[in-house]
Amino acid sequence: MKTVVTFGTYDLFHVGHLNILRRAKDLGDRLVVGVSSDELNFRKKQLRPTYPIDHRLAIVESIRYVDEVFVEEALELKRQYLLYHHADILVMGDDWEGRFDEFSDICRVVYLPRTVGISSTEVKVRIRGVA
Q1: pTM score
Q2: Residue 1 CB contacts under 8 Å (≥ 6 apart), including other chains
């Protein structure tokens, strides 16, 4: 059984999220998704998620491609998460290209193209500009 692990905030869930989860699942038998905690998201993007972690976990967990979810507390713990979940493949969006190559010693690292024209962060910025 091949395990694929990916990470993300999954705030304002959109078709881009769905696309990356579907394509990640296509690479293996089991898809495990780390959902960034509210605090981690703020440290990464200086933006608070619109929806709290329990809501985002419930949304991601309900997607048919996802077999398991967990809370990602810190970027520095990625190696431990990958080892704990016995990852064969780490999937990230291509906006992170090269940033996680250090894990190629424990699993294959794949960067998938993001869906063009959609981003939760851009939607938030757009909404703030209108409000």
Answers
A1: 0.89
A2: 28, 29, 30
Over pLDDT 70: what percentage of the chain? 96
99 DSSP β-pair partners: none
pLDDT of 46 reads: 82
Tokens 């976990």, located at residue:
57
Would you state the structure tokens that stand for residue 27, as one six-digit string? Answer: 């690479």
Task: Identify the sign of the CA torsion 111, 112, 114, 119.
Answer: negative
CA 91/CA 69 separation, integer angstroms: 14
pLDDT of residue 66: 98
Distances (CA, A) of 119 to 8, 9, 17, 116, 123: 12, 11, 9, 9, 6
Number of CB atoms found within 10 A of residue 42's CB:
13
Q: Helix or strand or coil: residue 117?
A: coil
Q: Give the full edge-to-edge strand order of the sheet including 30-36.
A: 68-72, 30-36, 3-8, 89-93, 108-112
On average, the pLDDT of the chain sits at 92
